[in-house]
Amino acid sequence: MESQPVEKKPENRKMLYAVVAVIVVVVLVASAAVVILTAPPAPPASVKPVAIELWYNDDGHYGDTEATVAVLLKAQLERSGVFQVTLRHSAWRTYVGQFSANQLPFFLLGWFPDFADSDNYVTPFLRTGFQSLGTNYSNPQMDSLIDNETGATQGRLQTFGAIQNLTAHDVPVLPLWMTRAVAVREPDVTGVVLDPFLFRYYFIGKNNTATTTLTMSTTDRITSLDPAVEYDLFPGTIVGNIFDTLYTTAPTDGTVVPATIPLLASGTPVNPVGGDPKVWEISLKPGLKFADGSNITAQDVQFSFQRLARINNPESAVFYVTGLMDRNVLANTPDQVISMPDGPNGLRVQFHLNKTYAIFSNLLTFSTTSILNHRVFPLNTSVDNPTTLPGGGIGAGSGPYYVQSTDLATSIVFAANPNYNFKTMWEQYASVGAPSIPVPVSQTFSISIKAAAAALRQDIQAHVVNLVYRSLNPPDVAALQQDSTLDVDLGNSPQIRYLVFNVGLAPVNNVAVRQAVAYSVNRSEIVNIVFGSLAQPLWSMVPPGWFGHTDVFQTTYGSAPNFAQAKAILLQAGFLSYIQPVNLATAVTVARRTGD
Amino acid sequence: MARASPLLLYVLTRGLLALPMLVILLTTTFIILRIIPGDPIQAMFGGRGTPGVVANARAQLGLDRPLYVQYFDYIAKVFTGSLGNSLILHPGQPVTRWILFYFPATLELSICSMTVAAVIGILTGVVAGRHRDTAVDISLRMYGIVAWVIPVFWLGLMLQLVFAVGLRWLPPNGRLSPPTVIPIPPQVTGLYTVDSLLAGRLDIFVDAVRHLVLPSITLGVVVSGFFTRIVRVNMMQTLQSDFVEAARARGIRDRSVVYRHAFKNALIPVVTVMGLQFAALLGGAILTETTFSFDGIGRELVRAIIAGDYTMVQGIIVFYATLVIVVSLFLDILNAFIDPRIKY
Predict the structure, then answer these.
(1) Residues A182, A184, A187, A189: is their CA dihedral positive or negative?
(2) Torsion angle of alpha carbons A317, A320, A321, A322, nearest 10°?
(3) Sheet holding A279-283, edge to edge
(4) Most exposed of A282, A304, B123, B142 (fewest Cβ within 10 Å)?
(5) Closest-CA residue in chain A for B35?
(6) Which of B291, B293, B294, B295 would you mutate first to test chain A, the one with the most A CBs within 10 A?
(7) Are B181 and A215 within 8 A, CB to CB?
(8) What is the mean pLDDT of chain A?
């Protein structure tokens, strides 16, 4: 007879597993119960936080760090206990449309100034009817202060102080940090001045001597090199190297406020003329020539401004000029607004503005107001690439360089202007930072345009180029600082980063909310964690190194976050409604007594 | 009356079938670009444009018209040979001009990459197929899989790190050295290697080739993975076919059987696959060109998408599609010539 297999053993084992499983579950449940029951009671929510949406750009318009900054800001605001922040993000072209259409209540933005005057950090955000850039801010007191500041040079310092104080009180914008300009170069490259107003290629050479050729890489892009069209930092910089303006700023590394100095102009402008403060007279230096050897005269000045009005490109910065001179008059009968007392071949021009504008000479440092050769440029049409002009465009301008070749997409090569008069133009400014050797220092200067910041690091580490400038990633800069074969220069950039409050949208339409945010953010933390040495905290919309700067947000809200003050302000304004904490022990006792 | 040749009929049929395909692609692109959020005109002004200025610009560019009007207008233009003008990247300039400006770089990269892919892929495929199920075969199959799945940008970055930044044997990016060091050759074809030779400048030719090495290897290695696998399978099938057995039975040396008889026949299907791979190559070129700052049409497409330059994106996609259709058709016809089994 065949014996049956013994089945008992596996059953016993199953039973054992079941018992063990039950014990484990019981122990876990019991442990959880003990932890929960013996835990100190959570502090009752004393306030109902203000819910706000913080928006940021997510497709790299401001580099790769934007999301990190937004997360950090959310953490800082929520750490105060009075805000509950929801992060939202969109691509740049959506973002711009959103804030232009007043859809974003609270968002991150950045700003590069257009020309060398502190007003450019004020008017665009704060003056009623100006660009607003998402703030929707309107305050007659602020408008009056801005009009004073642009209308007269006397008392301008005090006016800027008052503007900044009022900004700190109303908080339509909240300055956070300013970026540092970075250039990485081979050690023998000299003359790199990280000037926030104009990066001058023509100062750069090797070993402070006349140099044959110099090469640079960048990730910046060119759309147009026509002063009547371009309105961006890189094209503006190129324009500043190939055209001269009537005035410019003394070279600076951004730590001091530079003086406005005559460039094509022979001296400071005459104002008022004939007792009229709206009329400005400017004389050109005698003997000035364009790169093709033709003379620079009053006619070229009038032509350059008339051309701005004729082309009237909506993407350009022409509005600065047409805001001071009637566009139709300037376009069709320019003599009425820019007269030439000594005739077209003379050297004097008189600008007849439609309002008093004390900072007019500062506006004339802006690349849009570059002086063009009327014999070379067409009056009515824009020319993106100067090499397509007659004669290869050599005579287009009078700057230290002319454009030898460019496709506007991948590279640009500059060659020295053979008619550039160093003695007349720069020799006198050696004491304020100009080179003591003739400029342009390098006979040719080429810029290669690369797709991404990583390429800049590769180019300079492989010594393919002599210099790379702008848009380097913070980790790349840190790595390059360790490279003994390279030098890293850091300087003040004119770019500021700030938070915008749309004062027309709740809850940030209440000044108390904006002030509470100002009390809660921690600029130093953002700079230290995200940017390291590539940024510095910013305490005013007018950054350090610019006329009238004061650290007004630091004075008003302190250097470190003040959560108590944030809470107090919001409570006073009726936010943070109390949810009365419930004492469970008392509640149970009362219930029992009621039950009794 | 003479009858049209079957091949001509085939080409005409394929050409006619391509038209609806192109329209579908155009329509899809047109719709997608307008569905995704964002206003390129607002972005163009960076938030500085007043509503009036933005509205004027929109009207000037025809973007204020109803979508269906814009659509039919665009389709009509495409079929009359105009891809329109760029909106954002090169305002007012013809899209065609910029496509022709960037395309030679992509073509140069594609040719070199395809060469690298074909050489590596065919070589490894033949060796793997001949040594079926040996350690060599397993290693090369592994190579095929790894090469095919490796992210092209990662491989590019690694090659840059080692050969450009570390060893400094090759330039890290770009198509040529800075223009003050090596001038851009006078444009004839736009292919720097060809133009430099036409100009008699060997120094420019060498520089252009040096700049092509890393991106071509990057893209070529990735595409070679596919070739390795296809050629291996074809080689194995061919080696088992009757004519190979017959050749062996006649006492022909094994080496001769493999390389003179089987190899040629194993390559025939590869030609068909090359057509498909050409599309993959163009896709890969977008990443490769961005990684290597190689100024080709792929890099321009990325920029156009980010900027929301509708006409530029549409133009490049139409161009890509046409290119793939034409190349596929050409390879199909070529296949008919080299493969006696195919008749039209």
Answers:
(1) negative
(2) 100
(3) A279-283, A348-352, A338-339
(4) B142
(5) A94
(6) B293
(7) yes
(8) 89
Tally of CA atoms within 13 A in the half-sphere of B92 that contains its CB: 11
Residues in chain B within 8 Å Cβ distance of A448: 174, 178-179
In the structure encoding, which two tokens stand for residue B165, read together?
A: 């930044």
C-alpha span between A408 and A449 (Å, rounded): 9
Distance from CA of A465 to the nearest CA of B (A): 7
**DSSP calls for A7-33:** -HHHHHHHHHHHHHHHHHHHHHHHHHH
Give the pLDDT of residue A580. 52
Q: Residue A569 is inside which H or E element, if any?
A: helix A563-572
CA terminus-to-terminus distance, chain B: 20
Residues A357, A277: Cα–Cα separation, whole Å: 8
Note whether B70 and B87 are within 8 A (CB).
no
- Share above pLDDT 90 across residues of chain B, in percent, rounded to a whole number: 41
Q: Report the C-alpha gap between A62 and A70 in whole angstroms.
A: 12
**Residue contact B89–A223, C-beta within 8 A:** yes
pTM of the model: 0.81
The letter for the amino acid at B163 is: F
Task: Tell me the nearest-neighbour CA distance from A348 into chain B, angstroms.
Answer: 34
* ipTM confidence: 0.79
Contact, B223 vs B281, CB < 8 A?
A: yes
Query: Whole-angstrom Cα distance, residue B122 to residue B120?
Result: 6
- Alpha-helix runs per DSSP H in chain B: 6-35, 40-45, 51-60, 67-79, 95-130, 135-149, 152-159, 192-198, 202-239, 242-249, 254-256, 263-291, 297-307, 310-338
Residues B218-247 as b/e (b if ≥16 CB within 10 A, e otherwise) read bbbbbbbbbbbbbbbebbbebbeeeebeeb
| DSSP structure class, residue B47 | T
Task: Give which of B173, B184, B207, B211 to mutate to test A binding, by max A Cβ within 10 Å.
Answer: B173
Distance CA B262, CA B274 (A): 19
Distance between CA atoms of residues A126 and A141, nearest Å: 11
